[in-house]
What does this fold into?
Amino acid sequence: MEKTDLPPNIRDLINKEVERLDMIPQASGEYNIAYTYIDWLLSVPWNEYTEDRLDVNEAARILDEDHYGLQDVKERILEYLSVLQLKKNRKAPIICFAGPPGVGKTSLGKSIASAMGRKFVRISLGGIKDEAEIRGHRRTYIGALPGRIIQGMKKAGTSNPVFMLDELDKVGNDYRGDPASALLEVLDPQQNSSFNDHYLEVDYDLSSVMFIATANIEDTIPRPLLDRMEMIRLPGYTAMEKHEIARRYLIPRQMKENGLKTEDIRFTRSALDEVITYYTVEAGVRNLERTFGTICRKLARKIVEGAVEAGSGYIVTPDVVQELLGPRKFQMDKSEDQPQIGIATGMAWTSVGGSTLPVEATMMPGKGDLKLTGSLGDVMKESAMTAFSLVRSRCGDLGIDCDIFGKHDFHIHVPDGATPKDGPSAGVTLTTALVSLLTKRPVRPHLSMTGEITLRGKVTAVGGIKEKVIAALRAGVRDIMMPADNEKDLHDVPEEVKKAVKFHFAEKIEDVLAFAMPKNVKACTANKAKALKDEVYTFELPEEDETDNPKKTAPAKKKRTSRKKKKTEEEK
It folds into this structure.
């Protein structure tokens, strides 16, 4: 107690408990309960703070060194450090990173703690169903302990750590209570200055703790809890970002883990793109790192067997990748090279990024029915019906014989029928495919489009522009048609993508049709993308960890040698 800086109320409480302890016989079970309680009160940090690194430039350097991209997250942390420097107030924000697996949410927490010079502590909330895991048990129970929040504070040893609550969306509940409801007090900036744990039974100040929660999906998080946190969404990495992450972090780490040296192997730019495009489909980079690990292991075996000379700088090309990993596992979307009638290319958003979505329309003799196939959701079916009604209502303006609708049935199909598709962004594409079919005018090649349509012919805004545009570029698209209201979303699109693609904006369906189906379609040739120079990358391996220090393995080696010597003497 003399060595610890304690608040007056806690010091008085401990003195009272010590006096009570003097009166209890040591053989009594109550003695251990009181002794453990005093020990916990002394172990929890009450007034111990680490000094924050307020040099914003140095913090920015550390964040950039540990993670590529993720500018929104980095800017939020640097803003907080700037406010801290001006206000000298320890009150910390409560942030939630939401995004698909493998995008670096957990490792980002460690990087933030390193940049701020704070202690880092992490608890996983996945599968927790007992409220006492958060608030602790009352001392009347045998083996009672504080909750995970107070345990984490003891582990950190300071009152202002970076505290990560991992997998917040996986919290459950049963007859033992609802842990998510207990977290309402922890994650509320107005209440957590007086957090009450059932075991300690005194208020504990959590206002200086920087809580960072992570979640894969927001739908399973209770709305009151979601309202208390500042959401930062990580949408997943683009192919270009994955290329840089693989070059800077993944390959050097896998080379080191598999015993390869800098001079043993090198990768070409096209080899990295080969792995990213044709061997992995994900929003994060976990599977990508595993794939590079497979390449490194196979090359390590070749070096040991003598098929590849160690230190020769063996160059890994796309052909070598296919030789080591086998045939390509995934096929990249490709845009139409030639003008087509009744086919238009749309763009879709998925959890692993964007993709292009071809839409086919045809007709046959019938009574005017509309058939939709391709595993479409309710929203997309409604978009198709809206597009069909729009075309039918404007048949005269579009140069279509209105009697054709009573004599033919129509069929709209979206290929890759096994993949469910839904969302309000295919209306423009469906309308273009139908008008092309009925007017016999081909659609411009290397064009993709997105946007919802109304019965009045207005083109309305959609989401996921960044992922859709990048996917369209990968598929060979050179012209993109999108709603005029989405022009502001191009701010998030990387500059190299903007330079390679030409954007066109539409407010009504007439703007879309005028560009998508020009009179002289033969003159509409696709702009060829500039091929990047195929560089050869040499990798600097990460610095050696303490666990890799050969001095630590020396005693074990010596012990094995002495046992072998003893055995030999017994045999003699």
